[in-house]
Specification:
The complex is a heterodimer of chains A (about 200) and B (about 270). Helices cover about 70% and strands about 5% of the residues of chain A. Chain A is mainly α and about 200 residues long. Chain B has helices at about 1-10, 30-40, 50-55, 65-85, 100-110, 130-135, 140-145, 150-155, 175-180, 185-195, 215-220, 235-245, and strands at about 45, 85-90, 120, 155-160, 165-170, 200-205, 225-230, 250-260. The chains are: A mainly alpha (about 200), B alpha/beta (about 270). At the A-B interface, strand 1 of A face helix 4, helix 12 and strand 8 of B.
Amino acid sequence: MLVLYFQIQSLKRQIEAMEKVVPKPAAASSAPESVQSPDLDALETQQKSIQANLEVVTQKLAAARLGETLERDQQSEKLEVIDQPTQPQEPNKPNRPRIAGIAAVLAVMLGGGIALAAELLDRAIRRSSDLYSVVDSELVISIPYIYTQSELRHRKNKLWLGLTIVVVLLVVGAAVAYWFLPPLDLIIAKARVGLFR
Amino acid sequence: MDQFKQAVNLARGVAPLARGADHEPRDDQPHPTDSRQEARNKNLPLKAKHLESMRIVSHNKDDLRARSFDMLRTQVLQSMDTNGWQFLAVTSPTAGCGKTVTACNLALSIARLPERSVLLVDLDMRKPKVADYLGIKRNFGLLGVLQGRQNLSEVIVQVGIEREQFLVLPGEPTNASSEWMASPTMVTLLQTIKREFRSRIVILDLPPILAGDDVLSILPHLQSVLLIAEAGSSSVSEIKECTKHLKSTPVVRVVVNKITEREPTSPYHEYY
């Protein structure tokens, strides 16, 4: 591009220089036309050839400019689809089972830690022997917790309620397994093959 | 029987008592003054159901739960007899250890013994609860006597369930508890009680030791202390603190109350 531009510039300068040269002899000797005719002819042919040169170079420049713009426009459309993108079926960032697992482990550890801390920090006595360090053991006497009849009744009721719930759950579970689950050996076989994954 | 009683009384440093001709175990008229007062006070019956709901079970000798209190009673009485003590103060490091329940059960357990009689005094002047636990009305009490409004004989009531009977001096709540406990009037009252109820075991239901200075101010006038600690609540350091305060007053027994786990010393699972 630049090369062409400079070529044009230099050609234009040559033309200008020739035009400056040409009028002087014309003005100085306008009368004797025939004498000057071979000189003029030569100049004219030179001018013609230069003019033709200029046109060619200008056309080249225009072609180059066009090519450049075309190239620039088509740059973005030059992408080619190599492989069709696949749509992700599940998110890859929050790994839910992993987070849940970590949370469960942490929760268990935290709970155990709190229980341990509470047990360590609890200075309360639990049994009569705990007092032997401060009181003569002969003086220590224990009295069990006095449960009232209603408390015993409540405890009994709670126990029965708990047992009933466990039995009912077992029965319901067995029923569900009987009617809705495939036979056990089938389940085991499937699990072994890995069909559940 | 009579000789035995006299021997017991002698051992306790009490003069032999004039007794009626019949030797019914329940016929307990130890002192002339005492009997006159009892005659004036009507016998308030206690309700078994209410007592049971308040965990007071010692009146029923068939009740398995009464056994540990019987055991406590026997040990405490042996110590008191050996040392000639008449006053037994029941207290604990902090509130809620079961002072009043233990005191009431102990009173009923002692009252079941034919040759013993009991006066239960509610000396917890901040939160007197003996009357509530026994289910008797309380529109009179210790404070009236201290203020000189009432006579001792007017406020002491005899309560009974089945054949078990004992005397109760209920309390009245007051803000000036620690002042009253430290007052000479209180000392005089204790001396009067000691004199008037010579033949009775006097159980004093005190406030918690570490809750204020009430117990500290009355400690010098007490003969023996039964310290109640609560399993799962009282700490060794609390007991240590209490024994520091109780250095000058003999501790009869230290009760570890409300034990929920089985112990080798528990009377539940033995012979019976």
